[in-house]
Amino acid sequence: MSKKRKRYSSTEKAQVVLEILREDSTINEITQKHDISPQLISRWRTEFLNNMPTVFDKKAAEIEKLKQEYEAEKEELINQIGQLMVDMNWLKKTTTGLRVEEKKALIDFDSKELPIKHQCELLNLSRSTAYYEHFFVTVLSFYKGLFSFK
């Protein structure tokens, strides 16, 4: 039967390494006290001594914080892209059964955020078809305004 490996938390490791650094007792005494192999304790001690400067390095903490913020923002953007793809696919499926006149009615010619070209792409409608009626109505209303008598 195999023996399950014990996993030590970072606080337990830190306590053991601090005992070694205090030099109150030998490594063998510490290994018997905590039931840990001397090789493992030596590895923890070496790792601690190698990473000790990062404890006082504020730049490393700032970099880690920026990495976490970047990852969170990246995750949020990926979720937004996914949601937009779902929305666009739904819009394309929904507008497939619409007649050309109904699609034209959905176009907002005064929109500043969504250009008419993009609206036509989303509605699967050619721009010339969209402009044709709008242009005709605009010209007609223009002429009515010119020749109206009061």
Automatic annotation (TrEMBL):
Keyword Coiled coil: yes
Coiled-coil annotated spans: 56-87
Domain of life: Bacteria
InterPro entries in the record: Transposase_8, Trp_repressor/repl_initiator, WH-like_DNA-bd_sf
Stored Gene3D superfamilies: Winged helix-like DNA-binding domain superfamily/Winged helix DNA-binding domain
The keyword Coiled coil is assigned to this record: yes
Keywords linked to the UniProt accession: Coiled coil
Protein name per Swiss-Prot or TrEMBL: Transposase
Organism ancestry: Bacteria, Bacillati, Bacillota, Bacilli, Bacillales
